[in-house]
Amino acid sequence: MNINWEYKDVHGYEPVLRRASEEVLGKLARREWNVVEHSNNTRPVHHLLFQDLTPPDAPYFAGHYRGEDFSGLLNYFVEIRSDPLVGTHPRLVFQKMDFLGQSIRAAIGALDGVIARGERRFTEDFALKIAKVSAWIFVTFLGIHPYANGNGHAARFIVRLVAWHYGYWAGAWTIEPRPGLPGDGTDYSSAIYLYRRGNTEILERAFLLMLLDGAGST
Description:
Layout: H1 13-29, H2 35-40, H3 43-50, H4 93-116, H5 124-144, H6 151-165, H7 188-196, H8 201-212
Helix pairs in contact: 1-3, 1-6, 3-6, 4-5, 5-6, 5-8
């Protein structure tokens, strides 16, 4: 069974996805998403976002990884023509995501340790630490591309979740629609492309600016 899922093919998808995104952010504001659990496993979030935007015969696209034991996902390959570095083999997705989860837990633990040792949260220095960790998680997640679609939304959720764990709402970093980036004018896709090739500063700087804008409030 070969299904190429594109949620944008669903008529009227935009208001549906915006409402679902608002629900996700509402839960985030109420701290119903746990930074350790849900930064490691975005499948409940992905399901909430896309449950009404899947093909009628393939509802499992919402909330499940490529490579999972569903006819349309088991051998679901992705190819991003603009960037050949994107798209782990479906049989390796779980392994890659497990390793990413371990790395996220370690990074959160390290940042929590910095706070425990007395560093103040709302400083540019600490915000930069968050920005660097968040940019790395974000780009790594997108490179694995664990879902058939909607990977950007899930990755943007992780960034918001990590930021809010430390009191930064980062409202400019929208889940839906795709956000613009503050800074030198480099667009979203280009900043990600450059990060993968060693130029990390542009994306990290954009994340820092978004963290500092309205820190600590919803």
